[in-house]
Write a structure and sequence with these properties.
Length: 179
């Protein structure tokens, strides 16, 4: 997979200002797809959640929506609270783009359906996602965002960037779950 192909799928990768970080994000996606046995076009088919029966929203759509929600939120918060804390926008972007990367190991195809993989039965995506990010030499701050973006992070520390991605994720999940 070339960078251009992945940017066609996830154009938000271009928003990361650090080229080395963008490349590590790309490597993480490629590694996860290889390990899970997925192709680029599968990102349009894989549901973003198995918790919504017959979910029609793809992993790709969800990742893009969360990334755009997180960035917009981070920009607003940065404008209003710059004296209170500094946000690293590249960490927000990379964390949002990779927050559900572990689902490529958590899920598998079973005929026309998607189900938990043997790995997914044992490890939810925040764990596998953090492992993938570490394997691909992403900064600890990005690994942290991935690791704590879901319920697994509820009882511990979340950096400001992790709080933003966590809430962006749930802003994109909760209204759909309630339908």
């Amino acid at each position: 997979m070339r960078m251009e192909e992945m940017i066609n799928v996830l154009p938000e990768l271009k928003w990361i200002t650090d080229p080395a970080l963008a490349q590590k994000c790309l490597s993480c996606w490629k590694n996860a797809m290889d390990m899970g046995g997925w192709e680029l076009q599968d990102l349009d088919l894989i549901p973003f959640t198995l918790l919504i029966p017959d979910c029609r929203i793809s992993l790709k759509t969800h990742v893009r929506a969360v990334t755009q929600t997180a960035l917009a939120s981070a920009q607003i918060l940065s404008n209003f609270y710059a004296d209170e804390y500094a946000l690293d926008m590249d960490t927000v972007l990379a964390g949002a783009l990779l927050h559900d990367i572990g689902k490529l190991l958590e899920y598998r195809r079973d005929g026309s359906k998607f189900v938990k993989s043997p790995c997914g039965v044992l490890l939810r995506h925040p764990f596998t996602g953090a492992g993938l990010a570490m394997k691909n030499n992403l900064p600890d701050a990005v690994v942290h965002v991935i690791a704590v973006h879901a319920k697994e992070g509820d009882d511990g520390y979340r950096s400001p960037e992790a709080v933003i991605v966590h809430h962006a994720d749930f802003m994109n999940f909760e209204p759909l779950r309630g339908r």
